[in-house]
Design a protein that fits this description.
Layout (H helix, E strand, L loop, with lengths): L4 E8 L6 H9 L5 E8 L4 H7 L8 E5 L6 H13 L4 E4 L5 E2 L3 H11 L3 E12 L3 E3 L8 H11 L9 E3 H4 L15 H10 L3 E14 L4 H6 L3 H19 L6 H15 L10 H5 L3 H18 L9 H4 L1 H4 L1
Parallel strand pairs: 1-2, 1-4, 2-3, 6-9
Antiparallel strand pairs: 4-8, 5-9, 6-7, 6-8
Helix pairs in contact: 5-9, 5-10, 7-9, 9-10, 9-12
Length: 318
């Protein structure tokens, strides 16, 4: 057994129906030394009862939050708690499960890639959706990593990966937004990518459950105008994470252009709302455009961005 300690953080809220399967899958991990930190989010007696049978295992620590934190702050809590005295830490949502070689496989990849901030596997999806979610590794210079994330990545596959705790100490914790914390996991990956590579392990050894009532399902049910506003905010948040790596005006402009590419969903695999946003009327798209340009100017220190319609070209008018 390796001497490196892995912390596994499980944020739980209304998870009584699933959390036992999740915890058993973690406790059945082989070939690694780990501890399991469970944070039950506020007054959730059913989840507490489902977790208590595991409290006798010396590897398990259970914390009952005195008030409801929400999924983002509870995720930050489990990363902090599980990361104490651990070299690596990961988030394990309460309704997913992992195969017995999951942690050992990711730990081997982390050892092979010392510059990685995160190593992650593909996701085998089940429930209301089925298939495999995968995203390619994000490597290169910090500016190259942010450019790839802005233009190519949406699904936060790496969010469930193995993080170096030394990297987590260099960036602020995961944070939320006013749109139901929409896509904060994706923004969190951009934050970590400022510090290192995101390395894919191309095997589907993590099993992600899609179900009615989840945060992702709620986002899908929003009105199209709310989806448009949330998407603008998300693109600006991604830009805000990317801009600190820019070292000159040219690099700042490159990142702003990449965020604009993301806004207009040039690559249709980006985002859950591609069809709805592309189908918006010209006036609605103009409103999104104006909101983005204003927000981008605020986030950049290079002054006014100049006429944007020429740079947007067909993306603003199609």
């Amino acid at each position: 057994m390796t001497s490196l300690l892995i912390g596994v953080g499980v944020p739980v809220w209304q998870g009584a129906a699933f959390v036992a399967e999740t915890l058993e899958s973690v406790l059945n991990q082989r070939g690694v030394q780990f501890k399991l930190f469970i944070s039950i989010d506020g007054a959730d007696a059913d989840s507490e009862r489902a977790c208590l049978p595991f409290a006798s295992d010396p590897r398990v620590q259970i914390v009952l939050q005195p008030r409801r934190l929400g999924w983002v702050k509870n995720t930050a809590a489990v990363l902090a708690g599980a990361g104490e005295q651990a070299e690596f830490v990961c988030v394990q949502p309460h309704d997913d499960w992992v195969e017995t070689n999951y942690l050992a496989t990711l730990l081997d990849a982390a050892r092979a890639h010392p510059n990685a901030a995160v190593v992650f596997s593909d996701l085998a999806v089940f429930g209301t959706h089925e298939g495999v979610l995968s995203q390619e590794s994000v490597t290169g210079t910090p500016i190259e990593r942010q450019s790839v994330l802005l233009t190519r990545h949406f699904n936060a596959v790496a969010y469930r990966g193995l993080n170096r705790t030394s990297v987590l100490k260099t960036v602020p914790p995961i944070s939320g937004n006013k749109f139901g914390d929409f896509a904060c996991d994706t923004v969190w990956m951009a934050r970590l990518a400022r510090a290192g590579d995101l390395i894919r392990v191309p095997v589907a050894i993590y099993h992600k459950r899609f179900r009615p009532g989840s945060a992702h399902a709620q986002w899908e049910n929003w009105h199209k105008w709310q989806k448009g506003a949330a998407w603008v905010q998300h693109c600006l948040d991604m830009l805000a994470e990317a801009l600190p790596v820019a070292t000159n005006n040219e690099e700042r402009q490159l990142l702003i252009d990449a965020a604009r590419t993301r806004l207009w969903l040039v690559h249709t695999e980006l985002g859950p709302y591609a069809k709805q946003i592309k189908a918006l009327s010209g006036i609605r798209r103009w409103g999104m455009q104006m909101a983005f340009e204003a927000g981008a100017a605020i986030r950049s220190d290079i002054g006014p961005l100049g006429p944007y319609t020429a740079r947007l070209g067909s993306h603003a008018t199609n």
